[in-house]
Amino acid sequence: MPPAGLPGLDHQTLAGAGNGLRHLSVWRQTIAAGAATPAHRHDCEEVIVVASGHGELHVEGRVYRFGADCTLVLPASVDHQLINTGSEPLHLIAALSMAPVQVLTPDGRALPLPWQA
Amino acid sequence: MPPAGLPGLDHQTLAGAGNGLRHLSVWRQTIAAGAATPAHRHDCEEVIVVASGHGELHVEGRVYRFGADCTLVLPASVDHQLINTGSEPLHLIAALSMAPVQVLTPDGRALPLPWQA
Asked: Is residue A87 part of a domain?
């Protein structure tokens, strides 16, 4: 069910703090056509494996276009945003080197998540 | 190309130390029907997302059967082995909270990897 605060984003925590992990979380997400994550950052490293769909990764003013089977690598603490620019759902798996995952807005405020991170 | 030392195991490092990461590595692996990883452990947490296929996870004497869309969660430093018990290739993505990844045999020796970890 899409969380109210993040329209177009379907989230599943595959593994994380709820499984006793302290340094690793793995999420499965689907971004609907035309939808996007908010701009945000994590104080941990992140790797996104794109299963299907097309999109753009915006990182500190730069735009990277990607498609299925691309891997996106994000160093810790860089602001980023994922946008589904295609006409199909964007399916991805994200691995983060933190559990639970904290999400910060570009101005440093904590972004409450509508799921157990 | 299957590495000579690990027959039946096809490996791709999607992200890791070669990308500047220090706390996160993501691998894509295929285990051929009937093949298995050696028993091994890492001094880091690991999450395995099974894309397709069937297999067994052996963890310190226990056996867990899994199939497609299962997620396997391994705490740090537990000996484990993945076995493809099906008739099709076993496709998976593994995330590890370490870069580069060190692999140890159950008796604590470093297991040299035939790929850049």
From this structure: yes
User: Any idea what the CATH number is for the domain that residue A89 is in?
Assistant: 2.60.120.10
Considering the domain boundaries, does residue B101 fall inside one?
no
Separation of alpha carbons B64 and A57, rounded Å:
37
If one counts the domains in chain A, the total is 1
CA B15 vs CA A42, A78, B95: distances in Å: 18, 17, 9
For the record, the structure tokens of B90 come out as 């076993």
Is pLDDT at A4 greater than 70 in this prediction?
no
Instruction: Provide the shortest C-alpha distance from residue B10 to chain A (in Å).
Output: 16
Which residue range(s) make up the domain with B75?
Answer: 9-96
Contacts of B20 in chain A (CB under 8 A): 73, 75
Is A64 inside any structural domain? yes
Tell me, what's the ipTM?
0.93
Using one digit for the tens of pLDDT, what is the confidence trace for B6-37? Answer: 889 999 999 999 999 999 999 999 999 999 99
Query: Is residue B116 over pLDDT 80?
Result: no
Length of chain A: 117
On whether any CB of chain B is under 8 Å from the CB of A95, the answer is: yes
What pTM does this model have? 0.94
A12 contacts in chain B (CB < 8 Å): none
